[in-house]
Give the backbone structure.
Amino acid sequence: MKQLLILAYRGLGRNRRRSLLSALALGIGVALLLFMAAFIEGEMRSSLELGIKLDTGHLQVRRLDYDVAKASLAWEDLIDDPTAIARQVAALEPVRLATPRLYAGGILLTGDESLGVRILGIDPTSEANDVYRNLVGGAWLNPDDREGVLIGASLAAKRNVAVGDRIALLVNTADGGVDEQRFVVRGVYDTHTPTHDQSTILMPLSKAQAMTGAGERASTVWVMLDDMYAADAVAAALTSDRYEVQTWAQMNPLQLEFERYANAMMIVFYLIVLGITATVAVNAMVMAVFERTREIGILAAIGMRERRIMALFLTESFLLAVGGVGIGLLFGGLGVYYMSVHGIYLGNMAADMGLTGFTLGDRLYGYLTAQDAITLVITAFVVTLLASLYPALLAARMEPVRALHGGEA
Amino acid sequence: MHVVQVENVTRDYTIGEVTTQALRGVDLAIERGEFVTLVGPSGSGKTTLLQLIGCLDQPTSGRILINGRDVSRLNRNQRADIRRNEIGFIFQFFALIPTLNAYENVEMPLLLRAMGAAERRERVLHLLAEVGLADRADHRPDQLSGGEQQRVAIARALATDPTLVLADEPTANLDTANGQQVMEIMARLNEATGVTFVFATHDPRVIKYARRVITLRDGMVVANGQGAPTERS
């Protein structure tokens, strides 16, 4: 075994440039796989996390007839006693917090311009809204504030609005009408999610209820769980003939669908990259076999069996794969580390691309589990070795006489 | 018992629709300890016969026995085992593994036989000393002269203590002095160890070392007689 390793190692060293380039190609393939896996996984995770934190929560309790798309404010579509229901839900074991929210459609009027926005009435004292507490200016909402709102940083920049400015809002009301009121921008929040921040205006729940004529009602009781995967069980426990309970999985179908699609695409991508790296490895080994035909003949002449000749070239491939995977782990690991810690700045890409129903932050952080990394590395390793079976078999099956004459009869 | 017995052996090569008869019914026997040369012009079948005796190739018809065992129809691995255990080779083109040094090249057949490390080391150093290369053990082939490389090849051929050493034009790529040195080493080792040497050549300076000269022409043995033992010393 030791002699096989020495022979294989020196065999690789015979044409250092080719061996290095082959290992490098394999390394780039592995690095690319790791990087892309971290990119896609990071995108999926952050999209779902942001969707849950900013929009859907883990669960929402709604009236059976409530239409999310219309943000209906008709009393029969709203929860009558949201505070009591939130208290009951919060008392359940797996529930971390539950808070009432009221959604209303509206139009922001600034100067001569108008922009469709979503009004979100929140309980400023609930931890559920901590995600908005990253203020780039101004102060957090007071529950009793009757004319204060918070606007997103990207909306403020887009409409050139600052803390203390007065804005006018046209808001749909429960009776189907529209009401216009003037507000003061108390603060500017930044969730680093431009698609969300540029279209959502926050105000205290009581003010939103008063302005829309919803009374004490709310659109939903918004729930966060300690374990998101307990959502189905909690939803089943809460469902009644008056209210429906939607889980995060039901409320984020696009993300989950995209995840399935992305996973399928990634498999195709893996196959392409692995196919290319395997071709590089096969090419390098086939060239090595043809260059060393006479040497193979000598080894056969002194009594080396087919299986051992095959093992010699597989060992060479193994060393090449070790080098390539090592290079891949180094560069891929550095890339994934950088992407995980610093992220890739996307800016307002999602909004610019018109992506709706898909929450994307302004910075994408990579995410790669050790299991995924190990699986990818082992796959690359195995594919390289499997691809090397052909040149190894080619070497092992050479007729000694032909091999001794450099492959010529 | 004969070390080599060749019985009515033919070897045909077919390329496309053309079949060439390299050997046409060769019969010969070689005793243990002989120092035999195969001579004849190019294309007479010397190399083909050596390859068949060396189990590198198989005859089209006829039988070849090595130490009494019919090797004519063995499979590839069985032939590899015979080569590893009973036959040593010396080739015209020196045929060393270029990435291994002289010591490692001689050691290689012993590794294939899984010989213990201490015994292996002793054997390799002894053989390198026998061919006068004890001080060149750590030199790679490209750091050795042609003559030195061929001496390493001789040491390697004898490493497993074979009963038969086959040499195909062992001096063809050497100058006169080196060729003579190689032949003298082979002759000395033949006498000292009793190993049978069979070598193919058409170099008259080499033929004179043989005890028996077998002449081939057009794939047939046309003469099988005594060499010139008086020339050997």
Strands of chain B lie at 2-15, 18-31, 35-39, 61-66, 69-70, 87-90, 164-168, 196-201, 212-217, 220-226. Helices of chain B lie at 46-53, 76-86, 102-112, 117-130, 146-158, 176-193, 204-207. Chain B touches chain A through 31 residues (CB under 8 Å). The mean pLDDT of chain B is 89.
